[in-house]
């Protein structure tokens, strides 16, 4: 029986627990949480839906994102993955998985729930950062099954600053990855040194220099500790992406126009990606295997939808333009 309960985001938001059974990584029972937005005022109905997936040290709290898609006629859903945000249970290591394919369980069930709730209409996927790696890998696996992504009603994907490679000097991506693989195999939950900066968090949160208010237990300013086992899983995902995927649907990639890395808060962090190297996003975007549109947003943060007013408005405008194209493209493909 499907039981929706009130969500922490308040009026119009509900959540559904997705039980996932015993954790393959040995941390007890795990669950995911599906969130939906149902505005009190009726919006136009298109039979389309959005399923949003967050990144590392993150969860869904971006109400303005849900409201924007609802205004465009999309039923909006978001997923807090296992051990993340609403899904984190006491004693569990936040965001820890030893293999990104483990997320298939909640992604498959979330997609099923979304289609059940919306009458098997089209589903647009949206993901940020690490979610922007997890989703293409999942889509690649779905595309290889009979009927591919089309049979599941997936119409397209929007990736917001997807994590396509490890930022930093090239030796970190070569020798460093070999070391991560070795340590991550035997000491999975050992913490990677020097990965706890609060630069980006201070830029975002109202308790720092930002305007956004969210739960610091679920999204701490300095981020959750990065473990070798989790990073090993991510690097294996990167390697698969770099070999080339076939996600089966068109993609829009939004990113900042520039990166700026700093050991402590600096106002320049507010107008650049302070987490990822945007040149790597551009470099690997062609590996998705379908039509890909890349749009750099001047002055955007790592999460372009948490940027200052002007770049955020530009990002939403680009989304709406691309959605107009996507609807026309998919209609033309269906009539061929």
List keywords for this structure.
Rossmann fold; alpha/beta; 9 helices; nine-stranded mixed β-sheet; 336 residues; single chain
Query: How many helical elements?
Result: 9
CATH class: Alpha Beta
Question: Which fold name is given in CATH as the topology?
Answer: Rossmann fold
**SSE topology string:** EEEEHEHEHEHHHHEHEH
- Main pleated-sheet profile: 9 strands, mixed
Helix content: 25-40%
The CATH architecture designation is: 3-Layer(aba) Sandwich
| Beta-strand segment tally | 9
Distance between the first and last residues' Cα: 40 Å
| Poorly predicted segments | none
Rg result: 19 Å
Strand order of the largest sheet: 1-2-3-5-4-6-7-8-9
**CATH homology superfamily name:** Alpha/Beta hydrolase fold, catalytic domain
Measured by DSSP, the beta-strand proportion falls in 15-25%
Mean pLDDT, all residues: 94
């Amino acid at each position: 029986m499907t039981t929706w309960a009130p969500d922490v985001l308040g009026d119009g938001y509900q959540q559904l627990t997705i039980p996932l059974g015993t954790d393959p990584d040995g941390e007890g029972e795990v669950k995911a949480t599906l969130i939906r937005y149902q505005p009190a005022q009726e919006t136009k109905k298109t039979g389309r839906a959005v399923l949003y997936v967050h990144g590392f040290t993150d969860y869904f709290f971006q109400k303005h994102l849900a409201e924007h898609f609802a205004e465009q006629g999309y039923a909006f859903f978001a997923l807090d993955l296992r051990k993340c945000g609403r899904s984190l249970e006491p004693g569990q290591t936040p965001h820890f998985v030893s293999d990104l394919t483990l997320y298939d369980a909640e992604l498959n069930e979330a997609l099923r729930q979304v289609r059940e709730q919306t009458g098997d209409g089209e589903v647009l996927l949206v993901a940020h950062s690490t979610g922007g790696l997890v989703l293409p890998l999942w889509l690649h696996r779905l595309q290889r099954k009979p009927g591919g992504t089309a049979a599941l009603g997936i119409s397209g994907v929007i990736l917001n600053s997807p994590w396509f490679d490890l930022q930093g000097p090239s030796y970190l991506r070569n020798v460093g990855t070999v070391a991560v693989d070795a340590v991550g195999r035997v000491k999975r939950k050992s913490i990677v040194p020097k990965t706890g900066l609060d630069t980006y968090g201070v830029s975002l949160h109202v308790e720092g220099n930002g305007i956004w208010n969210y739960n610091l237990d679920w999204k701490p300013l300095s981020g959750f500790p990065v473990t070798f086992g989790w990073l090993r899983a991510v690097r294996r995902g990167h390697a698969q992406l770099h070999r080339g995927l076939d996600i089966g649907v068109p993609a829009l990639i939004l990113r900042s126009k520039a990166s700026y890395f700093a050991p402590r808060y600096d106002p320049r962090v507010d107008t650049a990606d302070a987490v990822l190297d945007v040149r790597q996003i551009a470099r690997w975007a062609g590996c998705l295997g379908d039509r890909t549109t890349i749009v750099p947003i001047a002055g955007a943060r790592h999460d372009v939808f948490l940027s200052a007013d002007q770049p955020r408005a530009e990002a939403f405008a680009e989304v709406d333009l691309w959605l107009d194209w996507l609807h026309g493209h998919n209609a033309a493909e269906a009539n061929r």
